[in-house]
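Let us practice reading a record.
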Amino acid sequence: MSVHGKTRRVTTRTLHDMKFHGEKISMLTAYDYSMAKIIDQAGIDVILVGDSASNVMAGHETTLPITLDQMIYHASSVVRGVQRCLVVVDLPFGTYQGNSKEALTSAIRIMKESGGHAVKLEGGREIIESVDRILSAGIPVMGHLGLTPQSIYKFGTYVVRAREDEEAQRLREDAKLLEESGCFAIVLEKIPADLATEVAASVSIPCIGIGAGGGVDGQVLVVHDMMGITQEFSPRFLRRYLDMGDQMRAAVEQYVADVKSHDFPNESEQY
């Protein structure tokens, strides 16, 4: 996508048009400049600066510990590496639940200090006041329904959500609610494929799935998972496109061996 030699940016409007024309949306996470630059140049539509940075970058067991300042740091690093794709930033746990005023303050800080293009919030009716308040300031909001990792201690497990009729119906209603509020898209995480397909067809905004089957408008994965950098996490929905962890480990082992054996640096690698 280019206009007069310039790269045309992906916007929330672009995603809406993609859904309308039946073109699938590609989305990956990124947390740093170098990775974001590679992903953007490869033609990704959306980068999510996910609070999954808490897991893959900081080594925490859950997404809960990451702070707003840390999210802003990761997001600003990503934004500097991007020329084309839309950058969406997670509002971390504790910065929007139960207090819409704090939610707005948090979202404004992310937009001003990181240069990100939109924010993402987990939940439905229970956070709708925060969603409304952020949208009233002109900040684009992406919703997130189904498995919401920030609520891990409430659910106690990362199993598939909305298998029961009651929870499925609540999810349908929440999706409508987020659409009516003015959200530009919704992530549907780890819910039955039939339900996800139905929800995506019932709303006019894009639904991007992770473990939600192929009937949605796009897909998102954590980049460290699909690249094989993290290897202890292998749910059914994850396709590994590289075994980067193994390759990196092998490269480091070779480097160590070359240094120990006086092979590195050689004659041509010194001044």
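A brief commentary: Confidence is low (pLDDT under 50) at residues 1-5.
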